[in-house]
Amino acid sequence: MNESAKKSESAAAFTPIAKWPATALAALSGFLYFLAFPGIDIWPLAFVALVPLIVALRGQTARRATWLGWVAGFVMTMCGFYWLLDMLKTFSGFSTPLCLLFMSILCGYQAGRIALCGWLTARAEARGYPFFPVFAAAMVTSELVFPLLFPWTYAATVHQLPILLQLAEIGGPFLPTLVLVAVNLAVAEFVFARMQQRPARIRLVMGLGSTLLVAAAYGGIRISMVDARVAAADKAEVGLVQANMSLMGKRRNKDEGLRRHVGKTRELLSQGPLDLVVWSETSVMAPQQEEYAPLTYRLQFAGSLGVPAIFGAVLVRNVQDGRGYVLFNSALLSDRRGEVVGRYDKQYLLAFGEYLPFGDTFPKLYEISRNSGRFSKGTTLEPLRLGERGLATFICYEDIDAGFVRSIVNSGETDLLVNITNDAWFGDTTEPWIHLALSKLRAIEHRRFFVRSTNSGVSAFIDPVGRVLKHTGTFREEAARETVAWLRGSTVYGIVGNAPWWLLALLSAAVAFRRRPGGRTAPEAEKKTKKPAKSSDAAPEETKSPEDE
Which run of H or E residues covers position 459? Predict the structure, then answer.
């Protein structure tokens, strides 16, 4: 047997770690993931955070691997999304213990993403497929297909390193994630070699590690190219306003929020003319009947601003059913004369904050959760039009869904990305910083400037390579202005979207059920490593199938 064959045989004979030590490793991986994630931002951990989970999953049964993935996901989400507790208390009105239970249930569900990764990995490995590629495919698949209330991506752990994120223009957030997974697998190979008392497979390590060098080289080249394109493009002066109205203050004193937005806009104009100003979500809080809203807003403030503005509003529509009316969380665009020339209604509504799950089916639930909103979602993806310019606009956490933002960008000619948000629901926590970090990828994916105006922070200007040019603090009344470039054109991701990743997901699912042609299943590989028992020996222990546990 040649050397490479011996190494392959040695790798195939890996003895899985026992349940509870493996569980501890999975929990460690979840905690490292949390530390690397935006908000804590110990980004070097992104290159090793998955290693304990990878080591724990190797050779496990499907059921145990699912458990290990779930543990990693639960630790990560309970730590990383700690702000869910206060959000649930604020909007549901329930007691702290009950909200903690709901938070645990929600995080337990969201942990299913990494549980799916574990299950897919174990199923494929048991059917004779090599562990490293099936884990990488399973990780990307789980990020793509598992539905989440608060979506996130592993790529965001290196949001402070734009040079590693430029591949997003080709493969969305999944390609940078794949690069980081490859680095983690390279590190894990050294751990496996130590555990199996064999030399590390250097060619494998170099192949996996080289993906980081390729990503950095590509990033360096593309950043300089995009910067040159920005320098040659038409420019615009854009302002943003962060009014910092408290969560309940917005509702109790609707006029104060409008006063702050108008006042801060005039401060910006005193520094020089603007081509556009962006206010935050529900910056005009008083609900208006949709048919009268354009005239009301022009007379109330838009006609005297002297600058085109995107502002958040609450619109009311009467309906002929038991509800009587429905509300819309809307972004409206007014021109320099104050005429409302565009409207976008939010489509991804926040559970408990804007609507109550199953509330339409069981209206009595609203009597229990009195603080939950009663909004309806919009139906159009058309960008807002300001003359010849297209403004791809999204509200709140719609900007962290790569596929959704792509749909809006592709619905018409767009020159700028705009997000209006109110993250005051989550308090002065890591959530606003997480939201900003996740949204940076949208600028890279579509090579557009990105303007984010949030009620309480973090508001920011992001350039087309993901650099934050200027940002506000949290829970401060601020205004800022920046020069942006009007940019058009398509990227690979803008054209093909997630189609390649869906093909990978189908492949990942297929190998979870189909035995590798000509390959050995995990039990067969295990039997091959055992010496035949002599007749005088005790009967060998029966080899378990990966599905027996």
Answer: none
